[in-house]
Amino acid sequence: MIASDVILPNATLGILGGGQLGRMFVVAARTMGYQVTVLDPDPDSPAAQLANTHIQAEYTDQAALDKLAETCAAITTEFENVPATVLEYLAKFLPVRPSGAVVAITQDRIREKNFLQSNGFKTARFAIIEKSQQVATAVQHTGLPAVLKLSRLGYDGKGQKMVHTLREAQQAYQDFGAQPAVLEELVAIKMEISIILVRSADGSMSTYPPSENIHRNGILDIGIVPARIAPALTEVATQAAQHIADKLQYCGVMAVEFFLTQAGELLVNEIAPRPHNSGHFTLDACTTSQFEQQVRSLCGLPLGDVTVCQPSVMVNILGDLWEGDLWHEKNVPDWTKVLRHPHAKLHLYGKQEARAGRKMGHYTCVGENMKDVLTLALKIQNELTSIR
Ligand SMILES: Nc1ncnc2c1ncn2[C@@H]1O[C@H](COP(=O)(O)OP(=O)(O)O)[C@@H](O)[C@H]1O
Ligand SMILES: [Mg+2]
């Protein structure tokens, strides 16, 4: 049964943020017959390129927010750093999923860690630093080496620094502008995994199998699905992610990142209140993508089937692959190295400026058995990164 207050195709959905996650939301929504309005200050954002309407303004622009409220049927976000107050303001007029209250927790590492700890979820040992006098006690608590992380606005390893001595910790805290931060023990990581789930306003949930995530320089490099872990561990991670979503009364797509330690412990690293890079496999390997789930949960539709049809390996394409002058013909990676393989799916985000570490696209390899899929994915990566 579909409830009577669902939002049906041809309605306009609003999304805050115009990056690649927004772009893939736009594709999913428009495929299903919705109209999409993107709010993003960038004149040429990846999502706005494909949206019906682009409101080019800051996230706090009052006139822009009022226009969204007037013209949209519901609002979502692709970006956890949208001010939570903006989401709360919009929620006075129309459904906003996920809510400002939830985004407020997940956009602030201190609040996120406190939420996890007070609800009994295991995390790396951590200490909160809000003034420089707290650095020494924090170091005592976590031990060294440790990782200093800014509480707000970090992503892809930015706003983080590994420290080996108290002096380095103090210096890093000052270098980050003495802003509120979290100091974490350096975890001996055996594997990183993530769980993507979608939860409806009525509490129903669908959960994808875990992705095994390999990072390079703090940025996701490769995602392998299903993760090569024991079924019992998958079960523990799945339950933890679902429990987190329930505790938050979450509505929308959410990702939970975990560290599996060398000692076999599963620790929650962080929560993303949106679709996640490690969930891109769902576009090519699943019945329903994480972006269609975002549309469905936003519109009050029943959730889609999360069956994974084939093993997959996703590889990120970073701006490092371009050399010098962007889009100058000789500097563009040779996409035929991906496109010539029938089992490789190329996704490019339409970004006009390549920078080191910037996510420009990804490809996903799918196939009957993981060994072959992984071999193909690594072969393509090797070819793309080799000197042309
Ligand atoms: N305490 C830690 N111990 C070991 N490695 C870490 C730790 N914290 C972060 N990392 C590494 O850095 C990556 C990025 O850190 P994360 O906290 O997920 O920030 P973000 O993804 O927002 O940049 C992690 O995926 C992991 O590889
Ligand atoms: Mg992370």
Concise synopsis of the structure shown:
The chain contains twelve helices and 17 strands.
Set out the fold topology.
Blueprint: E1 12-16, H1 20-31, E2 35-39, E3 53-55, H2 62-71, E4 74-77, H3 84-90, H4 100-106, H5 109-118, E5 126-129, H6 135-142, E6 146-150, E7 160-163, H7 166-175, E8 181-185, E9 189-199, E10 205-207, E11 211-216, E12 219-225, H8 231-247, E13 252-261, E14 266-272, H9 281-285, H10 290-299, E15 312-318, H11 336-339, E16 344-348, E17 359-366, H12 370-385
Parallel strand pairs: 1-2, 1-4, 2-3
Antiparallel strand pairs: 5-8, 6-7, 6-8, 9-10, 9-11, 9-13, 11-12, 12-15, 13-14, 15-17, 16-17
Helix pairs in contact: 1-10, 3-4
Give a description of the structure.
The chain is α+β, with helices and mostly antiparallel strands and 388 residues long. The chain is 30% helix and 26% strand. It contains twelve helices and 17 strands. Helix 1 (20-31) packs across helix 10 and helix 3 runs antiparallel to helix 4. The mean pLDDT is 95. Residues 124, 147, 149, 154-157, 184, 186-187, 189, 192, 215, 218, 257, 269-270 line the site of adenosine-5'-diphosphate.
